[in-house]
Amino acid sequence: MFGLVLICLAVFSAATYGLARRKVLQAAHGSGTRPHSRPKYHGAHAALWAAIPALLVLVGLAVAAPRIITAVTWADLPAAAPSVEPFRSQFQYDAEAIAAGSIPSAVAYSADQRAALAAHADRISALSGMLRLGGLVAVGLAALMGGLYAWSRARPDYRARNAVERWVGGLLFATSAIAVLTTLGIVLSLVWESLRFFQTVSPLEFLTGTHWSPQIAIRADQVGSSGGFGAVPLFVGTFLIMGIAMLTAAPIGLMAAIYLAEYASAFQRAWIKPLLEVLAGIPTVVYGFFAALTVGPAFRAGFNRLGEYLLGGPLNDLGLYLMGVQNQMALVAGVVMGIMLIPFVSSLSDDIINAVPQSLRDGSYAMGATQSETIKRVVLPAALPGVAGAMLLAASRAIGETMIVTMAAGLQARITANPLDSVTTVTVQIVTLLTGDQEFDSPKTLSAFGLGLTLFVVTLILNIVALRIVQHYREQYD
Amino acid sequence: MTDRPDIRAAVERRLKRRHAAERRFRLYGVLAITVAVAFLALLLGRIIEQGHSAFVTHSITLDVPVDAARVDPAYPQGANYDQMAAEALLVRLGVDANTADNGRAVRDLLSPDMGFQILAQVRADPSLIGRTVTIEAPVGDSADLYFKGEISRDTPEEQRVLTDQQIGWLDQLERQGLVEAHFNTGLFTRSDSTQPEMAGLLGAVVGSALMLMVTALLSIPVGVLAAVYLEEFAPKNRLTEIIEVNINNLAAVPSIVYGLLGLAVFIGWMGLPRSSPLVGGIVLSLMAMPTVIIATRAALKAVPQSIRDAALALGASRTQTVFAHVLPLAMPGVMTGSIISMAHALGETAPLLMIGMVSFVPGVPEGILSASSALPTQIFIWENAAEAAFHERTAAAILVLLVFMVVMNAVAIVLRRRLERRW
After folding, report:
1. Considering only CA atoms, which of A343, A336, A341 is closest in space to residue A286?
2. Which of A289, B160, B202, B416 is deepest in the core (most CB within 10 A)?
3. Which string of DSSP letters, residue by residue, matches B183-216?
């Protein structure tokens, strides 16, 4: 239906293009004047007027129609409909499903309820039929009026090109505004859902509580159901893994960048850079698989063997602990995430080091410094703000990274600084809370949006600060 | 200038130390790169090592008598064909005692696919009831692992999924020539299944393709036009600045947040179907858009100002200049940037988990509105599966995903090499 209307609209719009173009050509021929714009602009102008207003009406109706139907029919449900929620809503859903020609839910209704359901479904389909007809007429009218308006303008002296270019300008602006709309959508959806969550759990408790067990808070009437929503263990786990990742990525990435920028020959660069790019292009789910099935078992075997070796010695207790280390630990997720971040750190740092003016290096060499002394005492201090910005960006990616931690870190929410423990992170909990089937409105599900909002705010602050620093640094040497 | 040997010796000592420090520093750099490259090699090597075996599978050919007493021609799906196949196999193995234990033990070696195939044949041709059909079907997942040498006889019996008796049977079948190894076409022609030997990637590949199509159709035109606006038309004012800062920050928003957006707005508010390639594609296109915009802006910046000046001097309007000259010249850069960002979107997993693309979808998705999985989420689902046979399939799925990404990136590189212009 929707598609058919679209095709009709496209055909109508194409027809107005041809008609307007011919009209202008003939008028110009008849009067012997030269039209202001080329004929194709007159055609395009007419086609735009025929299509765009009708399209807006169509999309608006398609979005609004189901809501109108629900609102109108929900207001007068038949008396036989169940009076208690959620059965009342289910009755409405089922009636809508029947009206749409699909299969209703398996709820068992009594005989008079079944009759009422059928009647209600009939009313809904009657209403939607009316709306559909009205919508068709409205779309047709919009197309016709738009086309007529443009038709009346299709004269040789009309500045069609300028009009079309105004349309194009508007379209271009609209596309770049989508970026802002996306941000707005993110912020609004996160804030909206979080507000609903914070009605049951106070934000203070969420941000400072140390007990995280959302699984028990399933029933809304449960006493102390809010006790399970203290997110501090998640923050601790997130920062622990981020710390390990940065301890891996920062030295390796920075040294790789220094080598590439200062020492490597053009040939070496031509080989090493693409290899690092490959490392950067590998999807995170692959890193997660590798962490869970290769690095995790390998680390565990290594620690277990070390524990065996220590048994009976002065470090017997440590040995016993190491023997019991499991596959899922913060260290595995952190190290693999660090490896994933190496190309990110190195390519950013590489750019920044390259931006340090050659004159600084030349000055240092002229004083007799070796290359490494120049790098350590001149280049790096000059590049420090930029490198710091790059590290902040990497840290923000580490905080927001999901797949590696989901597959390799574990689910135990605990406050620990021990890298051999299994910890859980904000992103892991979002995934756990939102995968699988559960109702949309429980505090358990909504808490994921609270976590998402926290994650968004923290990474946004890190990004803004980092981008400021990098920008400022670039301007310094431009 | 001076010839004092003590100073000279001190300087030389220090110089030696400084040069040693120099060499050490350089070595750190080499080490860092070696670590990164070695890790890449280890990662790829391990995945190939784990995944290559999934491209081969073993199948068994068996003559199964369709017992007329047990099949109702009016209701053929009611019969237990797995049991018939198991009995036929016991006969082949020369085991007389058809006990329940034997039946279960031998059924574990066969795939339910055998029963499905018999049912399909009987349905197509009811005259087969009472006759014998010849069926070639995959062996069960544990049997397949045994033939590949991944389950060893040397493991104590209680620690492996196959008993000594079952292993004896499998050896006997192999000697009788009933079992055959061949390329695992099922991996590419079947969709997800709870049985590893019947699970394939077709549904996930089609889902990913549909999703990527939606992403490309949305993010490339919108991203390119937005970049054109920002680079060529936007006035230098507050609003433009906000948009630019916005785009830079969007590129760094964690991908899972986009998933939350998709869940709340497209599924919760707009009511689009869960798990559908449409929602996945929209979410991925929002993620890919900043990258497309940034790549396009770089390509537009590289077009020299003289081109614009020349067009404007000949009387073209700004719109005509941009769309007839600047954008076509920037097209190679736009295309490479777009393809690379599409390859990136192909591997994105976290937002798809949020919009329900981790549910079990046994068939091939019919359109952009039907439930579907995608390659990266299929990897995630299989990685979580308990059966050992899914591990090799997970690695194989990763290899397939990586091949797709390599191909896309290679196309981008070739395009860049072919079409790139230096001004």
Report:
1. A336
2. A289
3. E-THHHH----SSGGG--SHHHHHHHHHHHHHHH
Tell whether B419 is within 8 A of chain A (Cβ).
Answer: no
Nearest partner of B412 among B304, B315, B291, judged by Cα:
B291
User: C-alpha angle A286/A290/A295, rounded to 5°?
Assistant: 155
Q: Tokens at residue B1, please?
A: 């200038």
Buried b (16+ CB within 10 A) or exposed e, A348-357: bbbbbbebbe
B positions 213-242 inside 8 Å of A (CB) = 221-223, 225-226, 228-230, 233-234, 242
Chain B hits for A275, CB-CB cut-off 8 Å, are 36-37, 40
A242 Cβ neighbours under 8 A, 6+ residues apart: A334, A395, A398, A399
**Stretch 322-351 of chain B: residues touching chain A, C-beta under 8 Å:** 343-344, 346-350
Length of chain B: 423
CA atoms of B166 and B111, how far apart (whole Å)? 15
Residues belonging to chain A = 478
> What does A61-113 look like in DSSP terms, one character per residue?
HHHHHHHHHHHHHHHT--TTS--STTHHHHHHHHHHHHHTTSPPP-----HHH
- Tokens 């270019």 map to which residue? A165
Residue B396 tokens, joined = 């194989």
How does DSSP assign A245-270, residue by residue?
HHHHHHHHHHHHHHIIIII--HHHHH
Q: Is residue B332 within 8 Å of residue B417, measured between CB atoms?
A: no
Instruction: Give pLDDT tens digits along chain A (478 positions).
Output: 778 888 999 999 999 999 988 888 888 888 877 888 888 888 889 999 988 899 999 888 888 888 888 888 887 777 777 777 667 777 888 888 888 777 777 777 777 888 888 888 888 888 888 888 988 999 999 999 998 998 888 888 888 889 999 999 999 999 988 888 888 888 898 999 899 888 888 888 888 888 887 765 444 554 444 457 888 889 999 999 999 999 999 999 999 999 999 999 999 998 998 889 889 889 999 999 999 989 999 999 999 888 888 888 788 888 888 888 888 889 999 999 999 999 999 999 998 899 899 999 999 999 999 999 999 999 999 999 889 999 999 999 999 999 999 998 888 888 888 888 888 999 999 998 888 655 666 777 888 899 999 999 999 999 889 888 877 877 777 6
Domains, chain A: 2-158 (no CATH), 214-477 (1.10.3720.10)
Give the minimum alpha-carbon distance from A393 to chain B in angstroms, rounded to a whole number.
8
Of B361, B45, B314, B351, which Cα lies nearest the Cα of B192? B361
Q: Could you tell me the end-to-end alpha-carbon distance of chain A, in angstroms, rounded to an integer?
A: 57
Mutate to test the interface with B, among A289, A350, A391, A454 (most CBs of B within 10 A): A289
Please give, rounded to a whole number of angstroms, the shortest distance from the CA of B37 to a CA of chain A: 7
Q: Please indicate whether, in this complex, the C-beta atoms of A402 and B255 are within 8 angstroms of each other.
A: yes
Residue A339: closest C-alpha in chain B: B36
Neighbours of A305 (CB within 10 A): 12
Taking the C-alpha atoms of A354, A258, A290 and B357 in order, what is their torsion angle to the nearest 10 degrees?
A: -20
Q: What is the ipTM of this complex?
A: 0.90
Closest CB to B376 among A285, A401, A430: A285
Closest CA to A421 of A411, A431, A430: A411
Peptide bond before residue A86 is cis, with ω within 30 degrees of 0: yes
The residue among B224, B213, B214 whose CA lies nearest residue B331 is B224
Pairwise CA distance, residues B378 & B400, whole Å: 11
Distance CA A201, CA A451 (A): 13
Q: Which chain A residues are Cβ-neighbours of B293 within 8 angstroms?
A: 179
